[in-house]
Structure to design on (330 residues):
């Protein structure tokens, strides 16, 4: 059996560690469990030292966000596979082995995710990952089982194992060699969209990303940064543009970036109608922050990928009223 390291990046998540770490320990058998603390200001570190002294603890000196926090932690961990696990995840029995067996059988798989259900509504898929992620031609992400804010009930419609475009960072199995070979997460993203960028770079390098329905976990979601927080709006809009700039083929880059800028402006109307002026300001700041990032963003050796949805998910959802992944196919 290959060496597997389950790595939980924690930031002020003592409550989640108290609630979910016992189940991770119970259902992870002989796999190594590591908590990398991102300079928490709560009592996470003292809690871990006192309650779980056998769990390896990596103490980072500053909060570098999800992306760079994991980069720093994983440089200190030797394993063949990393399991990047959010602290607000409830795992289930035998959640690791099916994914590792799948990746062992296919060396081209660089990353994989399990089925992600909602911790509070356990019959339904959860926003961050569901049954595997995709993006449309404008870079808007969606999932099998979740399009925008519509999460489907899990009735077995995605009980398969198949290649997808991106795997969620909430519970991502990664081949360690590939992770380091392509440079890990882009630390400039801080948080949000970094796993999609990573998977896109993996695909540009010739690897595959998979979803495995034989493994399932439950996700609370929004544990560190709630979706209503304008900082989350800022990071999603800025990083979405940065991801497109890095990974699109040159002949499509500027046309698509321009379209995104226009649509991002249109989306501000939604926030205006909701009275969310802070989100409108966050979008404006995100655009200027993206322009400032461009000199530092490294363009990838990119190619045309067939598993990008070649229509607009915005038009499908809001105009054609296609609320499920299967409706997109039809």
């Amino acid at each position: 059996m290959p060496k597997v390291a389950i790595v939980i990046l924690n930031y002020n998540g003592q409550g989640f560690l108290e609630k979910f770490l016992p189940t991770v320990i119970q259902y992870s058998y002989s796999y190594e469990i590591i908590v990398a603390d991102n300079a928490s200001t709560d009592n996470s570190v003292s809690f871990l030292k006192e309650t779980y002294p056998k769990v390896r603890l990596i103490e980072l000196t500053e909060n570098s966000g999800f992306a760079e926090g994991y980069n720093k932690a994983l440089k200190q961990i030797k394993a063949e596979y990393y399991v990047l696990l959010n602290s607000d995840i409830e795992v289930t029995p035998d959640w690791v082995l099916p994914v590792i067996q799948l990746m062992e059988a296919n060396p081209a798989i660089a990353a994989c995710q399990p089925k992600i259900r909602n911790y509070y509504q356990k019959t339904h898929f959860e926003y961050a990952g569901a049954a595997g992620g995709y993006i449309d031609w404008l870079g808007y992400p969606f999932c099998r089982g979740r399009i925008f804010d519509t999460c489907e009930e899990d009735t077995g419609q995605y009980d398969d194992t198949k290649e997808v475009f991106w795997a969620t960072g909430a519970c991502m199995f990664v081949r360690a060699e590939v992770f380091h070979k392509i440079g890990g997460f882009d630390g400039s993203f801080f948080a949000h969209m970094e796993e999609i960028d990573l998977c896109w770079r993996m695909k540009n390098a010739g690897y595959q990303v998979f979803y495995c329905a034989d493994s399932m976990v439950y996700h609370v979601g929004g544990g560190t940064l709630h979706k209503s927080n304008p900082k989350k709006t800022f990071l999603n809009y800025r990083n979405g543009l940065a991801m497109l700039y890095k990974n699109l083929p040159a002949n499509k880059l500027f046309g698509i970036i321009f379209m995104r800028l226009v649509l991002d402006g249109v989306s501000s109307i939604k926030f205006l109608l909701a009275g969310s002026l802070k989100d409108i300001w966050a979008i404006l700041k995100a655009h200027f922050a993206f322009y400032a990032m461009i000199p530092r963003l490294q363009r990838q050796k990119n190619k045309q990928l067939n598993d990008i949805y070649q229509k607009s998910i915005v038009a499908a959802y809001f105009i054609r009223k296609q609320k499920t992944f299967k409706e997109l196919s039809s």
